[in-house]
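User: quick one, sequence for these tokens?
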């Protein structure tokens, strides 16, 4: 036995304290270590650099809607229609995604009110296969629009997606015209459609329902675009401007109506709903 071992055994060292694994959160923006509780109490926004972190569908719905909202059932769709397989089978990827997330796919609808004003809100979950748009997402979006028409209230879409779901091929791309056509139901009923663009909103989602709103709101710093920056830069062979495809850049160039901090988002939506849909508030 070495002298170090003898000394260590003789001294009354206190046992090692167990600390929770989730006590700290590293900010993706400034890379500061934050107390997780403090971070979550600040709506998953860094109190130092104001970086807006990604949040789940349930958390988003809880932040936007009044208490007592109803989560709508997800429409049933045929899974793995192409029998797709890459390094894993598509059903295995779906199973893993569902085990790690509370909902059956990447878009969840809820009916409720925002400061007393009736609304249907659809939220994309980026943690579910990158929020990718497949038949389930397209069907959920259409179902959310139909519910809004039935309830004669606005539809709010909170987007977060990496694009179309490659495992569904052309069937995924077909959701772009399908969701675009569904929005005509809202227009025909004279109901507002508001889009909240969060980080990231890219690909086929940007090329369809994410950019067809009556009002477009973006969270600060959100990445919003169709193709990736590297692809664009290599195509045009020019250096892209500073902040390209970020919410503030798009706002400055007229593609986004306003950039709103998360803490002000609920109040801003309530104001817009009051302006755009006063009849629905009166009817309630």
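Assistant:
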């Amino acid at each position: 036995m070495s002298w170090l071992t003898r000394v260590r055994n003789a001294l009354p060292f206190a046992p090692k304290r167990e600390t929770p694994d989730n006590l700290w959160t590293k900010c993706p923006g400034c890379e500061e270590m934050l107390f997780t509780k403090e971070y979550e109490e600040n709506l998953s926004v860094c109190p130092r650099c104001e970086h807006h972190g990604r949040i789940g569908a349930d958390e988003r719905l809880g932040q936007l809607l009044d208490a007592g909202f109803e989560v709508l059932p997800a429409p049933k769709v045929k899974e793995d229609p192409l029998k797709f397989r890459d390094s894993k089978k598509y059903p295995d990827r779906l199973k893993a995604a569902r085990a790690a997330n509370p909902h059956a796919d990447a878009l969840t609808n809820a009916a409720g009110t925002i400061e007393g004003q009736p609304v249907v809100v659809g939220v994309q979950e980026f943690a579910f296969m990158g929020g990718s748009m497949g038949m389930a997402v397209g069907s959920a979006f259409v179902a959310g629009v139909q519910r809004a028409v039935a309830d004669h209230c606005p539809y709010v879409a909170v987007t977060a997606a990496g694009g179309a779901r490659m495992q569904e091929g052309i069937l995924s791309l077909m959701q772009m015209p399908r969701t675009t056509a569904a929005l005509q139901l809202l227009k025909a009923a004279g109901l507002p459609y508001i889009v909240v663009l969060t980080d990231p909103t890219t690909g086929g989602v940007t090329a369809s329902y994410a950019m067809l709103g009556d009002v477009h709101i973006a969270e600060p710093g959100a990445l919003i675009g169709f193709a990736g920056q590297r692809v664009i830069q290599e195509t045009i062979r020019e250096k892209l401007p500073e902040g390209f495809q970020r919410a503030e850049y798009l706002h400055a160039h007229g593609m986004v109506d306003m950039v709103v901090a998360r803490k002000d988002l609920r109040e801003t939506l309530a104001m817009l709903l009051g302006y755009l849909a006063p009849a629905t508030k009166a009817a309630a």
